[in-house]
Design brief:
This protein has 133 residues and is an alpha/beta fold. Helix 7 links the parallel strand 4 and strand 5. It has one domain: 5'-nuclease (Rossmann fold, 3-Layer(aba) Sandwich), CATH 3.40.50. 61% of the residues lie in helices and 10% in strands. The chain has 8 helices and 5 strands.
């Protein structure tokens, strides 16, 4: 099991430069978990992609549906006090620290493309490439 951040989900389900990397992560470990926040973050990514003309309505809905299947039964609450302490001590956003807190709670890696998370939370946070090697 891994904690997958929202960017990883978007890379997997929205064809682009990093899709192959995200597919490698999923092929290595398809058991993905996330804090409940992931839903709002992905909805925002999809809304922005729609506004930019990158996705149509039906494609966006399909991406969200597939993502919901990936995380079925693996969405978790995280304690606000832990998230805030992580945010205060690291300088990272509280949004990002929800993923960190969950990875700590589950004692699994957080796979992300966010370099600031990787640098501040090694060895817990790892890049897609490092996870697959």
């Amino acid at each position: 099991m891994i904690v997958a951040d929202t960017n990883l989900v978007a890379y997997l389900l929205m064809r682009g430069q990093r899709t192959a990397e995200a597919e490698s992560v999923y092929n290595k470990d398809p058991d993905w978990a996330a804090p409940i926040l992931w839903r709002s973050e992905l909805r925002n990514v999809l809304a922005l992609s729609f506004r930019r003309g990158l996705l149509g309505v039906e494609a966006a809905l399909a991406v969200m549906g597939t993502a919901e299947e990936i995380f079925k039964g693996q969405e978790h609450e995280v304690a606000s006090s832990r998230v805030l302490r992580l945010a205060f001590s690291s300088g990272c956003s509280a949004y990002d620290c929800e993923f960190v807190a969950l990875a700590q709670d589950l004692n699994v890696p957080l796979v992300t493309a966010d370099e600031s998370l990787i640098s501040r939370f090694k060895p817990l946070a790892v890049s897609m490439k490092d996870f697959c090697s």
